[in-house]
């Protein structure tokens, strides 16, 4: 008999299985996708991790502390349901910040994980000291990106498979959690037809058989709802305006949220359904892997951000400062897209693309290719989108640029004089070392950080300076990504019912649990905390369950 059944072979599942197997537990690992998708969404990620007071930070002259990180976390999260839905999420958040400031880096380092030496500065905020945002750079890129963070856990699980401790069954789609006397004791579902679909590609749902397995406990690690746009719109919070009519997908379509409903039917409580994390800088992938495949631009702070009508977004909705604040501003404009206007100089220095496949230099651990980033011109992946992506407009004059923007959307919303007035006003502010434009202040401030000055932020210049051209416009789509709410769990990963009591035999980890407690992030993320949340919850739940069964 199995000690534990784990549903979902993404990163949280692999971490939990590795910890359980290390404790000598027999684990059955089930996943609806083919083996090609082993590791789940984390494989596709940029591999950014939130670390506090790391050696990488100290070498870059960054002074960080656990106290500052917790201040930033509380400012971002905005926990306001502390006696109910946020109770366990806040406890998980405090434990995670302790982990990020403590043993997280060494734990990973001991498994062979290494980090790019320049620390990134994500979600810069732009509010007061106690408001949203990272006060200092904390975004540590794994050397090898997503595949680099998946690899050590995949290796641990496959070693356990060779020892007979783990039985991995792809193409097993769970439809029901089996209960006996109030305890979860197993799963039922369908065996799907074998599939040759590559990682991330849509796979067949043709059923060729059924299964039923029992165990002493079941752990759900099945991910969120990012690939299910219907469910996203159903849970969309009114505070962010109306849900977008059009979205692109930052995750494969099998990230459908099925197991949330299935676990809820077994007695688990879902909290914070209205909290979610979607990016505003999405571009359609010219070479898609999954349906409606979107890629997120990781922008530096210099591009001018306009809504669909050509009006500049209000401060502090600058590139890279406040994802959800900008999402709210865009959706309340009445349209579900926006624009960057920038120069060749800005795109060369400031544009990166999220995802392991969009960063071959880092993913392949090629120092030579990484060094090529400092050469003139955009990176090869960015250049490919400029040449082949449908969301880019390039022109030598502002009149031609705006005409191309209107042609792209067919909405004819943009007036060249309106756009020109705002760019000229911004350009006048660059001429002087003094300014009232907070975006220009932010650009200059960013260049005080060596990491930004070297590889992330272009020297401030006039957008309409012909020597900096050509001009570039990028249509930005809403790209679906993460579920911030989920199954409420205690610090052992036990799923709680509506009365706050653990459902016997039922555990959860990863995005399905809101990355811990049903909402470790509250309303906003500081970034580098999604992959990290899968690592932490998988480890916590795996170790706690192993200890409980051994005890």
TrEMBL record:
Domain FAD-dependent oxidoreductase 2 FAD-binding: start-end pairs: 3-531
Pfam family, one: FAD_binding_2
Keyword Glycosyltransferase set for record: no
Keywords: Flavoprotein, Oxidoreductase
Gene3D superfamilies from the UniProt entry: FAD/NAD(P)-binding domain, Succinate dehydrogenase/fumarate reductase flavoprotein, catalytic domain
Protein's UniProt keywords contain rRNA-binding: no
GO MF: steroid dehydrogenase activity, acting on the CH-CH group of donors
InterPro entries: FAD-dep_OxRdtase_2_FAD-bd, FAD/NAD-bd_sf, KsdD_DH, Succ_DH/fumarate_Rdtase_cat_sf
Source superkingdom: Bacteria
SUPFAM superfamilies associated with the record: FAD/NAD(P)-binding domain
NCBIfam families: PRK12834.1
Protein name: FAD-dependent oxidoreductase 2 FAD-binding domain-containing protein
Protein's organism: Neobacillus bataviensis
């Amino acid at each position: 008999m199995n000690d534990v059944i784990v549903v979902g072979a993404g990163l949280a599942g692999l971490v939990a299985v590795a910890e359980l197997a290390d404790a000598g537990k027999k684990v059955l690992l089930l996943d609806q996708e083919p083996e090609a998708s082993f590791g789940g969404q984390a494989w596709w990620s940029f591999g950014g991790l939130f670390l506090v007071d790391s050696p990488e930070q100290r070498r870059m002259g960054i002074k960080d502390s656990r106290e500052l990180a917790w201040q930033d976390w509380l400012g971002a999260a905005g926990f306001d349901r502390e006696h109910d839905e946020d109770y366990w999420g806040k406890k998980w958040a405090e434990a995670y910040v302790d982990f990020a400031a403590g043993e997280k880096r060494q734990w990973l380092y001991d498994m062979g994980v290494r980090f790019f030496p320049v620390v990134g500065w994500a979600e810069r905020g732009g509010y007061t000291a106690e408001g949203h945002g990272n006060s200092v750079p904390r975004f540590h890129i794994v050397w090898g990106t997503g595949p680099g963070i998946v690899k050590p856990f995949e290796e641990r699980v496959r070693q356990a498979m060779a020892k007979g401790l783990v039985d991995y069954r792809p193409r097993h789609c769970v439809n029901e959690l089996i209960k006996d006397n109030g305890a979860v004791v197993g799963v039922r579902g369908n065996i799907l037809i074998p599939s040759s679909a590559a990682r991330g590609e849509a796979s067949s749902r043709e059923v060729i058989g059924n299964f039923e397995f029992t165990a002493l406990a079941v752990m759900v690690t099945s991910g969120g709802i990012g690939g299910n746009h219907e469910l996203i719109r159903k849970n969309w919070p009114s505070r962010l305006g109306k849900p977008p009519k059009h979205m692109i997908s930052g995750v494969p379509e099998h990230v459908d949220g099925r197991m949330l409903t299935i676990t809820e039917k077994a007695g688990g409580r879902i909290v914070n359904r209205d909290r979610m994390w979607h990016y505003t800088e999405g571009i359609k992938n010219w070479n898609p892997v999954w349906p409606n495949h979107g890629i997120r631009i990781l922008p530096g702070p210099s591009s001018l951000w306009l809504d669909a009508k050509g009006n500049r977004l209000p401060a502090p909705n600058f590139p890279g400062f406040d994802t959800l604040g900008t999402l709210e501003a865009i959706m309340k404009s009445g349209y579900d897209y926006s624009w960057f206007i920038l120069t060749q100089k800005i795109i060369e220095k400031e544009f990166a693309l999220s995802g392991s496949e969009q960063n071959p230099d880092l993913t392949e651990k090629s120092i030579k290719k990484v060094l090529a980033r400092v050469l003139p011109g955009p990176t090869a992946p960015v250049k490919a989108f400029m040449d082949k992506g449908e969301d880019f407009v390039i022109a030598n004059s502002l009149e031609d640029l705006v005409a191309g923007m209107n042609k792209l959307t067919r909405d004819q919303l943009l007036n060249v004089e309106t756009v020109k007035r705002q760019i000229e006003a911004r350009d006048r502010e660059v001429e002087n070392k003094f300014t009232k434009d907070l975006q220009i202040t932010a650009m200059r401030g960013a260049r005080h950080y060596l990491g930004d000055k070297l590889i992330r932020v272009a020297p401030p210049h006039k957008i309409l300076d012909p020597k900096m051209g050509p001009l570039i416009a990028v249509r930005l789509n809403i790209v679906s990504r993460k579920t911030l709410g989920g199954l409420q769990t205690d610090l052992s990963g036990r799923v709680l019912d509506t009365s706050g009591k653990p459902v016997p035999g039922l555990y959860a980890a990863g995005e399905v649990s809101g990355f811990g407690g049903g909402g470790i992030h509250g309303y906003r993320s500081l970034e580098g905390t999604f992959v990290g949340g899968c690592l932490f919850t998988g480890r916590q739940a795996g170790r706690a369950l192993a200890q409980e069964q051994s005890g």
